[in-house]
# Entry
Amino acid sequence: MTKAAVIGLGTMGPGICATLARAGLTVAAFDLSAEQCARAPAMVDMATQVLEKLGVNLVPGGSVGIVESLDRAVAGADLVIENVPEKLELKREIFTAICRVAGDGAILASDTSGIPITDIQAGMANPGRIVGMHWSNPPHIIPMIEVIAGRETKPDTVDWMKAFARRIGHLPVVIRKDVPGFVENRVLYSVMRECVDLVERGVIDAQDLDTCVSWGIGYKLAVVGPMSLLDMAGLDIYNAVGSYLNRELCDRADVAPYVTERVAAGRLGMKTGGGIYDYTPEGIAALRDERARKLVAVRRILQE
Ligand code: NAD
# Structure
């Protein structure tokens, strides 16, 4: 397998292109936005430099080319990875276009963060080759990939995707039921809901919450996963604490005003110069560098 197509070059696409090219694939990438197409080569280069620092195995012969249409990208591809915004109708439109051009043997993957693959593949030609391939951001640094089978995905497609994720130096996990949010985001959003609630209720301020989670459970979870942590602490302890604490935890079904009010005021985070914290353009550049450097250092240690 040598040729891949990446559709969508926003936050996720460029890092994915760099990872595939590093593994020796010829990548044809397309984005509807001319602006994103113009920015993408520099973003691919930056991700390639990080892969070099990570010491990820280099398979010679890989390349990334930006092409002017979806059809050009998909024609002849063995694997297509869709990375357009998280809207079911848009994804179905893109998959319909991909299915028209893709060869019968091509694997068609969606990087959706949590839209059931069953909903994306319904009514598509040859749905057995459509599969979830959920990368984590930044996709060239975080090695875990969720592989999700929709109702009609063939077991062979899942096996192929697992082997492919390993081939590019990533770590596949198989999501056995196509539940909304899959697993990574279900866990993350349950943590986020509790964190936002604690800050909103004044139990802790945002900065101390970040310190508490990053240097407490976050740091530990990178080495000992939650199921192993249960064994490490003892199931009797979980049983005792969970019996009074579970009923205290936030269980709201909507999004807290702490977030919705900021969104309404245009405070979306780094992209608008402020969200929970405030940012300057120089501060954002420095933070991005610092975070990439630390993630690279931690991954190198964890891989030893
Ligand atoms: P993004 O908005 O940054 O980028 C999406 C890109 O798709 C844009 O550049 C846009 O121009 C392009 N696009 C829109 N319509 C198109 C079309 N018809 N044809 C071609 N290109 C089109 O989004 P993102 O953050 O890169 O997310 C992409 C997908 O990956 C989403 O499904 C998202 O949920 C998922 N994802 C995101 C993250 C994350 O942290 N950002 C992590 C994992 C998965």
Summary: The chain has a mean pLDDT of 96.
